[in-house]
Amino acid sequence: RSSDLSPSKVNEVRFGYNRFDEGFFPEDSEFDPRSIGLNTGVTNERDFGLPQIRIRGGIANIGATLSVPRARIDSNFHVIDNFSWKLTRHDVKFGYEFRRTTVDQFFDAGYRGRLDFGSLADFLSGTLSGGRSARGDSNRFTFQNSHAGYLQDTFRWSPELTLNLGLRWDYFGVIEERNNLLSNLSPEVGLVQVGSGGLERLYDRDWNNFSPRLGLAWDVSGQSKTVVRAGWGLFYDAFSQDFFAGQLPFNTFNPG
């Protein structure tokens, strides 16, 4: 939404919302292995299905991959307020940006379990050579609130030369979890719970993300036949929330 304050001043407010919903579930997710006498210890119905069965000797695996089931819903709220002011030789624009990103997910990697057999004969006789199984609550609702301010000036130095000068500041809020289900590993004391309510943060705040921008457009002959353009900018980005709640491929999260 834009509003004209005067012929040379315009204020613009924009709001955006984006939602991403994705899930991966094996085709046998409604099958309870206990119905055939195979008790894998799974009690949550979303983890039903055969465990992965591996048999040495060139036989294909039975059961789904260990990386399922998993699902996530990402939501992004975005608000921008821009103010543009046109002067004789300057076009000034400044504003503020707010972004809130949430990830509601679970990742039950290995919860269905894996059974290893050294040979087909071992499989037929029920002789295990190994296996694995994961347990815990992998549900996490992480969120991040980020703020930014910016100022830009398009300066017409001469009819042939235009300069673009700008500065942006970003603060990417520290990632948190709704129920404080994140932790840091301290060599001195072990796992340390992090979050709100006086708990330690997942990592230190960073207030120093200043991003200068510089650009130019030069009409070499002054007749708009040859124009040289150049630009430079410094950019920052936020941590991916998957670093702390995605399990794979980063060894940073243990369900609890």
Strand content: over 45%
What structural class do you assign from the helix and strand content?
Answer: mainly beta
Number of helices: 2
Percentage of residues assigned to helices: under 10%
- Radius of gyration equals 28 Å
Parts with pLDDT < 50 across at least 5 consecutive residues: none
What would you call the shape? elongated
Mean pLDDT: 89
The H/E string reads EEEEEEHEEEEEEEEH
Number of strands: 14
The quaternary structure here is single chain
Largest sheet: 9 strands, antiparallel
* CA distance, first residue to last residue: 46 Å
Short description:
Helix content is 4%, strand content 49%. With 256 residues, the chain is mostly beta strands.
Written account of the structure:
Helices cover 4% and strands 49% of the residues. 16% of the residues are buried. The longest helix has 6 residues, at 120-125. With 256 residues, it is mainly beta. The strands form three sheets. Strands 1, 2, 4, 5, 8, 9, 10, 13 and 14 form a nine-stranded antiparallel sheet that branches. A three-stranded mixed sheet has the order 3-6-7. Strands 11-12 form a two-stranded antiparallel sheet.
